[in-house]
From TrEMBL:
The lineage of its organism: Archaea, Candidatus Iainarchaeota, Candidatus Iainarchaeia, Candidatus Iainarchaeales, Candidatus Iainarchaeaceae. Keywords: Membrane, Transmembrane, Transmembrane helix. The keyword Membrane applies. This is YIP1 family protein. Residues 51-212 form the Yip1 domain. Pfam families: Yip1. The chain crosses the membrane at residues 45-72, 78-106, 137-165, 171-189, 196-220.
Length: 334
């Protein structure tokens, strides 16, 4: 027993050393940042990306083997994914390479953004500091996440109490990860943790704002035009050369999805500035190739004279995806 004790103690010390950056983040990172090693950091990030890529490669291969031609048909309209899945077992070799490349590229870009934002807030650190400390945190954080999830899984066996404790533990670990990332940014850039938290949250706020704005533009996309024109863009479809008359609306529709689609119908509805509503639709059942233009004519009840807010809804199928819609609105004058 005594013969194995020193070895056992050594293993415990090594394990604790591995988790130092998680258990004592501030002290550990302050020491680590003095010994930045970009080669080690690249190796860590590359191995991580390679492992993730390997897992995806195995999934694609199994998916391809089990479902065969059906899988190929389902994925043929999805760029890159369909190509990789079509490679079958070769994806096990290709995906780790792609995973490593993507991980390195995205981490470099992400850390450059973090470094840039930190400098705007008075940071004096370097990109290398950010990149290296992030790589040092990666594996211990992943290991900690695995351990926490195993504990939560075991706790869930206990009715009610286990679920409550597991939920609290998951909640704690989520925010502790945010804390660890904040410490990385703080130490790497010599800024306060409050400023580091701002750096961490700012990209997310910007991304959410951009996504929300884009979604709003796609869904609503109002366009005020002169005369009887009502040209606008709805998702991946563009209306041009529109003509609104008393009993007919005509426009040229452009397919910008990059794929062939099958249009089922076009619905137009709206209300005039005087409050007079109207609606109409036309069935197309027509194949629409990528970048192709088609002239669409929709007959509708008499509109009378006035300014209208027109709501367009395009119903179409895209490969195996059916029942898709693109909608939006614009204003026109009859």
């Amino acid at each position: 027993m005594g013969f194995y004790s020193p070895s056992l103690r050594g293993q415990v010390r090594m394990s604790m050393s591995f988790f130092d950056i998680v258990l004592r983040p501030q002290e550990t990172m302050v020491e680590d940042v003095k010994h930045v090693n970009m080669q080690e950091a690249n190796r860590t990030i590359g191995i991580y990306g390679g492992i993730i890529g390997l897992l995806f490669g195995i999934i694609f291969s199994v998916f391809s083997i089990i479902f065969g031609a059906v899988a190929a048909g389902m994925l043929q309209n999805i760029p890159v994914v369909g190509v990789i899945a079509g490679l079958g077992l070769l994806s096990i070799l290709i995906m780790p390479i792609l995973g490593a490349i993507f991980a390195l590229v995205f981490t470099h870009v992400g850390m450059h953004i973090v470094h840039f934002l930190a400098k705007l807030l008075g940071g004096t650190g370097t990109f290398q500091n950010n990149y290296y400390l992030w790589s040092r945190l990666l594996w211990p954080a992943i290991a900690g996440n695995i351990i926490i999830n195993i504990v939560i899984f075991i706790l869930n066996i206990i009715p009610i109490l286990g679920l409550v404790i597991g939920s609290l533990l998951s909640f704690f670990w989520y925010f502790y990860n945010i804390y660890l990332t904040t410490v990385v940014i703080s130490v790497a850039n010599n800024i306060s943790r409050l400023r580091a938290l701002v750096v961490l949250l700012l990209p997310g706020i910007i991304i959410v704002t951009l996504l929300a704005s884009t979604a709003l533009l796609i869904l609503v996309n109002p366009s005020t035009v002169q005369g009887d024109q009502c040209d606008s863009k709805f998702g991946q479809f563009v209306i041009t050369q529109s003509n609104i008359s008393d009993k007919m609306s005509q426009f040229v529709l452009v397919n910008q999805t990059g794929q062939s689609v099958t249009f089922n119908s076009v619905e137009i509805s709206g209300v005039s500035s005087a409050g007079k509503p109207f609606s109409a639709n036309t069935n197309l059942s027509d194949k629409f190739n990528a970048n192709e233009t088609k002239t669409v004519t929709v007959s509708h009840p008499s509109l009378g004279v006035g300014t209208y807010t027109l709501l367009y809804k395009f119903n179409y199928d895209w490969g195996n995806l059916t029942g898709l819609t693109a909608s939006g609105s614009c204003r026109g004058t009859n």
